[in-house]
Each structure stands twice: as structure tokens, then as C-alpha cells.
Backbone:
């Protein structure tokens, strides 16, 4: 079975030609898989030697193969977020890392490289399917080149592929996993930032802090809230804190307990806490869990809370009247 | 480890160093009350700024010190509890109930001065 493999640089006719080759390749693969034990018996070369041989071939034809790969990337419309120059620059480093991973089997280094690459391209809007897509395209381009080189020695080609395929699969896997891990890291970071932004501790007077809470409080946010508040009390030397929960619709028992703990911890730092804006539902929850209301200083709304805080601090607010 | 107890006018100031053993705490409990008696102090400030952990024994001892000192007619103020320590304490349910607390030594003195309305004579 003979088939021709021509360079794909002529992109106009490349697609039709590739389809022909694809069909031929299928026959080829079927034949290869059906021919059994002769190959195993005649295995004269070590897998590592074969690997070195194919790596050398891939290095020798680096320029041509990389060019083919970049062409295929743009044909399949991947990495549309990047310019041609950027694609070429990244392609070069990815190609070299790919071949090096084949050679050294140092997959940790490859994973670190993949994470580093992801860090750069995720902000550019590159998606997971694009990254997996281009790695698989590279795998195909290199495999085809191996077919071409060893087409006359069928048995050797088999052994070469035996060495190439597991390594290539591992590379595709490693890069995809590295990319996904990087995305997950970014997501976690953003979640953390959102949580921090949503619990500001604000100083409105000397020694008076306000902590307006809005939205859903889960145990993790509640914990972060407490830590931020305690730090704020120490930094601002606050004597009174008004925690306003008008913007909190509901609170489960765990979080309600957490609020009580926050009040107690604040007292240990010498600050009085006034809680304002309790909704009827939350008031119900607090009564249900049997909170010692003697410990909790509560006022209806934020305005009332601030007024009481000012009294506690010894402020008096008077209107400025025009002198007659 | 000896805990230094300093006299500041009508008040005593006891400064905890980092980690106090149970024996140290017991010694301190008796020592502080004896000093209150000796100097006829009106109040004691216990500065725990240097403590980065507070276990249940230490917490109970502090409460007992405060109660014993109150039996002598004097006030106790615990100052300098670190945010992380405060957080851990409330989670364990150690609340130092009935004992006054303040942010630091300066605040503790301000609180006592206000309470006893002691004015400085120039």
C-alpha cells in the first residue's frame, strides 16, 4: 500500500488532499493493527533509541513542521483572539517544549510551562477547547511527518509510533490539565477578591467603625468578616462598631451564632458592638437559637445605631445656627 | 517565669510575657492579689499583648484573678488581646464574662481614669 504525502503549504488544495490522505491513512492503520506478532519478535531497537531518533527528526524539520502547524491553526480558526505574530511566537515556544518533553519525559517541567503559558493567554480570552485543539493539531502534524519519513519501512514506523504515541498523549493530557488548573486558580483568586470587596470596614468618626453587610452570608464570608472587623478595630483603635445587616435577608443558625461570636470577640478588644437593621426573619432566628440579648446591643436602623454610637463616644450633634 | 508587676499611681500593671505555664499562672494569681493588698490598689491592668495563644486554663485563671481582685474592692482590666486570639477564644466559648477589656494599655488607663475620675494635678 503506497500513498503520497505532499507538503501542505499550498493551502488551497491542501484540504482536498488531506481528505484523500485521511482515507488512505485509515486503510493503512487498519492493516497495521491487524498484522500481529512479527513486529514484536523483530523488535531490535530500544524504545528510548527510537524516541531519540524521532526527536532528532522533529528538531531537524522544526521550521517546516512549525509552519505547517501554524497554518492548520488558522485554518481551523483557533486562537482568533491572538494576532498572527503572537501565534507564531507562542507556537515556537510550544513546539520546542513539546519536542523537549518527548525527549526528556520531564512532564513536571511541561506542566509548569503549560501553567505559565495559560497565565499569559487566559487574560487574552483563549478558551480550553482552543488550547486542547492546538496541542492535538501539533500531535497530528508531527505524526504525519513521521508517517512520511518511515513510509517505506512499515515495521519500523510501527515501532516509532509505539514510542511516540504514549508520550504524545501524555503531553496533550499534561497541557490540558495545566491549562485547566490555571483557570481554576484564577477563579479562586477572583472569588477571594469579591469576598474581600464585599465586606468593607469603614471609619466614620474617630473611634467609630461601620460594617455594612449586604447580600448572602455563608460561614466562610462570616469568618472573613470577623477577621476583617477585628483587624479594623485594632488598626483604627475603635471603641464602637455598628454592624448593619439591613441588606441581609436571611441568616441561618450557624451564621447567627457567628454574629454573636463576632460581638463577643470585639468586646475582648475593648469595642462595643451595636447591631442594626435586623429583619423580622433574622430577629426570629436569633430568638430561636436563644441568643442572650443582654449581650447584644441592637438598634432598629443604621441612623439610630450611629446616633447611639455617638452618644457612647461622647459626641453631641447640634445644628449650626446663623448668628443674629 | 516571673511576670513583672509595676505600680502606676493607684493602679497595678501586670505584663504577661509570651507563653506562661500553668505554674506561672497559679503563681501570678496569688502574687497579684497580694500586691493589691500591699499597695491598696484601686485597679489592676493585665496586659496580654504578648500572648499569641490563650487556652482555657489561662482564660479561667484570668477570670479568677478578676474575681479575687474584686473581692478586694478593686477593678481588673484585661488589655491587648490580639484579634486572632480573640477569635479563637470566642470559638472555644471562653468569653471572660464580667471582666472589663480594652484595646491596649493606653485605652485601659483611659477607661480607669474615666471610671475613677482621677484628675492630674499640675
Residues:
Amino acid at each position: 500500500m503506497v500513498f503520497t504525502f505532499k507538503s501542505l503549504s499550498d493551502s488551497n488544495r491542501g484540504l482536498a488532499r488531506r481528505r484523500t490522505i485521511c482515507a488512505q491513512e485509515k486503510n493503512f492503520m487498519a492493516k497495521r493493527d491487524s498484522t500481529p506478532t512479527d513486529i514484536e519478535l523483530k523488535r531490535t531497537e530500544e524504545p528510548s533509541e527510537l524516541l531519540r531518533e524521532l526527536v532528532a527528526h522533529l528538531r531537524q524539520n522544526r521550521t517546516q513542521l512549525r509552519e505547517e502547524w501554524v497554518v492548520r491553526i488558522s485554518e481551523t480558526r483557533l486562537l482568533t483572539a491572538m494576532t498572527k505574530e503572537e501565534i507564531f511566537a507562542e507556537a515556537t515556544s510550544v513546539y520546542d517544549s513539546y519536542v523537549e518533553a518527548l525527549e526528556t519525559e520531564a512532564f513536571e517541567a511541561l506542566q509548569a510551562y503549560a501553567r505559565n503559558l495559560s497565565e499569559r493567554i487566559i487574560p487574552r480570552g483563549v478558551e480550553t477547547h482552543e488550547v486542547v485543539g492546538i496541542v492535538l493539531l501539533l500531535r497530528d502534524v508531527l505524526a504525519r511527518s513521521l508517517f512520511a519519513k518511515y513510509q517505506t519501512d512499515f515495521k519500523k514506523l510501527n515501532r516509532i509510533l509505539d514510542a511516540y504515541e504514549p508520550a504524545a498523549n501524555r503531553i496533550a493530557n499534561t497541557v490540558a490539565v495545566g491549562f485547566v488548573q490555571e483557570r481554576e486558580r484564577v477563579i479562586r483568586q477572583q472569588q477571594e477578591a469579591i469576598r474581600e470587596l464585599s465586606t468593607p470596614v469603614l471609619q466614620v468618626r474617630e473611634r467609630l467603625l461601620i460594617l455594612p453587610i449586604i447580600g448572602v452570608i455563608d460561614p466562610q464570608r462570616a469568618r472573613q468578616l470577623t477577621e476583617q472587623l477585628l483587624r479594623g478595630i485594632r488598626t483604627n483603635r475603635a471603641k464602637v462598631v455598628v454592624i448593619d445587616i439591613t441588606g441581609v435577608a436571611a441568616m441561618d443558625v450557624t451564621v447567627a451564632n457567628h454574629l454573636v461570636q463576632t460581638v463577643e470577640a470585639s468586646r475582648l478588644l475593648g469595642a462595643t458592638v451595636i447591631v442594626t437593621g435586623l429583619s423580622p426573619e433574622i430577629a426570629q432566628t436569633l430568638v430561636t437559637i436563644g441568643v442572650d440579648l443582654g449581650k447584644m446591643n441592637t438598634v432598629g436602623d443604621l441612623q439610630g445605631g450611629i446616633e447611639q454610637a455617638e452618644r457612647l463616644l461622647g459626641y453631641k450633634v447640634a445644628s449650626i445656627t446663623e448668628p443674629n | 517565669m516571673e511576670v513583672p508587676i509595676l505600680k502606676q499611681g493607684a493602679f497595678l500593671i501586670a505584663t504577661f510575657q509570651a507563653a506562661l505555664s500553668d505554674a506561672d499562672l497559679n503563681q501570678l494569681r496569688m502574687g497579684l492579689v497580694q500586691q493589691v493588698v500591699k499597695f491598696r490598689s484601686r485597679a489592676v491592668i493585665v496586659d496580654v499583648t504578648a500572648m499569641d495563644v490563650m487556652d482555657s486554663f489561662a482564660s479561667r485563671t484570668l477570670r479568677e484573678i478578676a474575681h479575687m481582685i474584686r473581692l478586694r474592692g478593686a477593678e481588673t482590666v484585661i488589655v491587648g488581646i490580639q484579634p486572632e486570639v480573640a477569635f479563637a477564644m470566642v470559638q472555644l466559648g471562653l468569653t471572660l464574662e464580667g471582666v472589663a477589656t480594652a484595646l491596649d494599655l493606653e485605652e485601659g488607663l483611659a477607661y480607669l481614669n474615666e471610671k475613677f475620675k482621677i484628675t492630674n494635678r499640675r
Observations:
- The longest helix of chain B spans residues 22-39.
